[in-house]
Design goal:
Blueprint (H helix, E strand, L loop, with lengths): L2 H26 L11 H8 L4 H4 L4 H9 L4 H17 L3 H14 L4 H15 L6 H21 L4 H17 L3 H10 L1 H9 L18 H17 L9 H21 L5 H18 L3 E2 L5 E2 L4 H19 L1 H12 L3 H8 L7 H13 L4 H7 L5 H28 L1 H11 L2 H18 L3 H21 L7 H17 L11 H10 L4 H72 L5 H20 L5 H22 L5 H10 L1
Antiparallel strand pairs: 1-2
Length: about 650
């Protein structure tokens, strides 16, 4: 090989390199580098919104780290992850933070970097400190790390959601939640940083009853920011839509629970629960994507069931006997007990039969396809359409019920409704004051407050049986234990308002809402039976008392009638005696007639004032007085007009 050949070969290699640079230039030309839209790769990045400026903030340090790794970014990141673990084990916190920052520079758009390391700081590293203030500092470091991740990943709703979840769950549910919530409300530096991130911690939406930022409400604002991001068109990744959307409304509920546990038991607590109920109902009306080809609304289950019943009624009208035969065939497959309960008229069913019939109705499976095939030819097309609609509604109902159970939707809905009532807030306040009095050894006051609270809680459990599965139920049971210690008795009276609750909690350690409702209903039936017996006995006593009273009244009326007759006879005799001098004595002086009138008035007054049995005794006296007065009238009365005036006045 001579020099000419070598030179020729080098020239060929050079030409090949130059030719290869042309497509590389056309593909990798930057978007700001002369050609419109840049090279092909730049155009694709712009089309799919994966350019560095689209993903988040551009970090020169991050780009420098990527270039410096010479294509070995993955290897370098793996080594740094191992180093971060070693530094945590050795408690070298400064080196740990520096290593985490380097990992974030190498992998700024990898969500798990921010999530894992923020969790590492807040949950693992913070527990290494004894002072709760130092623990709070590490929790805050974790939240700040997440905030940086959100800025580096503007289209990562999962990261935004995790930040909101972090503020609520870590600061509001840890063992140091009381101290963390207080420190967060007073952390002005963190509040300023949040304002720079467009989180309005100075708005009423973020402030609690003390007019300071509340960690639950601030977390909710972060979550709402994630919801807005999804509604703008960004897809949810690595998370179910149900879990993604439920957290924001639930943080409202958690806020209301938190302020009540801290002693805020007035209209502020009621207002918090009202807002929480509004948020939860709004969540129930939100369209939630499912694994099927349709979306559902958790709060529209009753409406779906109503629509299904309407479709079935319409199908029964269209199909006629075909539907009735199919239903009868489905009923034949049930147990004899269920068939008997269904055949019993609704008004004649017992409580047990009502429960069995209700479950049997749900288990009846009619073959709607056979119903449509057996329908008349002229109505068959309409029947087929109705069957398809019923099947679609069945699938939607099944999905809705399943999703509601996943997050216990009925419980939170009922809890928000019950807690916003004044009596529930009063019941919690009474328990709170009773516990405080008990701790201060004021036993009489504590016992009175306990008993008043138990009466209210019994009414609440009767109206909202689902609340017996609440955490508050366990706290209430602990209060019941302290109450029994205070009264120095383990026995509960038969009329104790929470007797069913106490028995179930004592036997099983927890209460199932259906079990509680069943036991409560049984006790309610027994109490109603006993009450009916007592009312019957009371009515019998009332009837006997009324009968005796009627007999006494009849006897009294008969005696009164006899006395009235005797009195009338006495009055007639008195009139006759008074009228007798009028005929025998033609003349009477005026003074004597007045004496006679006064004597007659005295006689009538004595007869009215004394008892009926004494009237017979007073009448002879009055007669005697009258007869004694009459001779004087005869002896002394001169002739004149006065004799004619006296009898008239006496009659009056």
């Amino acid at each position: 090989m001579n020099r000419t050949t070598v030179l020729r070969r080098k020239l060929v290699y050079l030409m090949i390199l130059v030719v290869m640079l042309i497509p590389l230039y056309l593909l990798g030309q930057p978007s700001g580098g002369g050609g419109e839209g840049g090279g092909r790769l730049a155009q694709l990045r712009g089309k799919y919104d994966i350019a560095e400026s689209d993903l988040g903030e551009i970090s020169p340090a991050s780009e420098t780290m990527k270039l410096a790794s010479l294509g070995l970014r993955g290897v370098a990141a793996s080594l740094l992850w191992k180093k971060s673990h070693d530094y945590r084990v050795m408690h070298e916190w400064d080196r740990l933070k520096a290593t985490l920052n380097n990992i974030a520079l190498l992998q700024p758009h990898f969500d798990k970097v921010w999530e894992f390391q923020a969790h590492n700081l807040a949950y693992n590293v913070s527990t290494e400190f004894d002072d709760y203030r130092q623990r709070y500092e590490m929790v805050r470091e974790g939240t700040e790390f997440l905030t940086k991740g959100v800025n580096q990943n503007r289209k990562a709703p999962r990261l935004v959601w995790y930040t909101g979840w972090f503020y609520g769950q870590k600061m509001g549910m840890s063992d140091e939640k009381k101290q963390f919530r207080r420190l967060f409300s007073e952390d002005e530096k963190l509040h300023e940083d949040l304002l720079e991130e467009d989180i309005a911690v100075d708005s009423p939406e973020a402030r609690g009853p003390t007019n300071k930022p509340d960690n639950w409400l601030v977390g909710r604002l972060w979550l709402n920011r994630g919801y807005d991001l999804v509604e703008s068109g960004v897809q949810i990744r690595r998370q179910t839509p149900l879990n993604f959307y439920e957290t924001g409304p639930k943080w409202r509920l958690k806020h209301a629970e938190a302020i009540e546990s801290e002693g805020v038991l007035d209209e502020r607590a009621q207002n918090a629960w009202q807002l929480a109920s509004t948020d939860w109902k709004a969540f129930g009306n939100r369209s939630v994507p499912t694994t099927a080809a349709f979306t559902i609304k958790l709060g529209q289950l009753d409406e779906l069931i109503r629509q299904r019943e309407d479709k079935i009624d319409t199908l029964e009208e269209v199909a006629g006997d075909a539907y009735l035969k199919a239903r009868a065939k489905a009923i034949e497959k049930l147990d004899p007990v269920q068939r008997d309960a269904l055949s019993t008229p609704e008004g004649e069913r017992t409580k047990s039969q009502e429960s069995i019939a209700s479950k049997a109705e749900d288990s009846i499976s009619v073959d709607y396809d056979s119903v449509a095939r057996a329908t008349k030819q002229s109505m068959q097309l309409q029947a087929l359409q109705l069957v398809e609609d019923i099947k679609d509604l069945d699938e939607r109902i099944l999905k809705t019920e399943g999703y509601r159970k996943q997050i216990n939707y009925p419980y939170w809905d009922t809890l928000a409704l019950a807690e916003q009532e004044e009596r529930t807030v009063r019941a919690r306040r009474l328990i709170y004051e009773a516990e405080k009095a008990n701790a201060d050894a004021e036993l009489e006051k504590a016992i009175g407050l306990y008993e008043e609270a138990f009466d209210v809680w019994a009414e609440i459990f009767d109206d909202y049986p689902i609340l017996v599965i609440d955490d508050t139920a366990q706290d209430l049971y602990e209060s019941l234990r302290r109450y029994r210690i205070a009264i120095d008795s383990d026995e509960m009276p038969e009329d104790f308002p929470l007797k069913a609750f106490v028995e179930l909690m004592g036997e099983y350690g927890q209460v199932d809402q259906d079990m509680y409702e069943q036991v409560r209903q049984t006790q309610k039936d027994l109490a109603a039976k006993r009450q009916a017996e007592l009312e019957a006995a009371e009515r019998l006593l009332e009837e006997e008392a009324a009968k005796e009273e009627a007999e006494k009244k009849a006897a009294a009326e008969e005696e009164s009638t006899d006395e009235s007759d005797a009195e009338m006879k006495a009055e007639d005799a008195e009139v006759e005696e008074v009228a007798e001098p009028e005929t025998t004595e033609p003349e009477t002086t005026e003074s004597e007639s007045e004496e006679s009138e006064e004597a007659a008035d005295e006689t009538v007054a004595e007869a009215d004032d004394e008892a009926e049995m004494k009237e017979d005794a007073t009448e002879p006296e009055s007669e005697a007085e009258t007869s004694d007065a009459e001779p004087s009238v005869e002896e002394e009365a001169p002739a004149g007009d006065g004799a004619t005036d006296a009898p008239a006045e006496s009659d009056e």
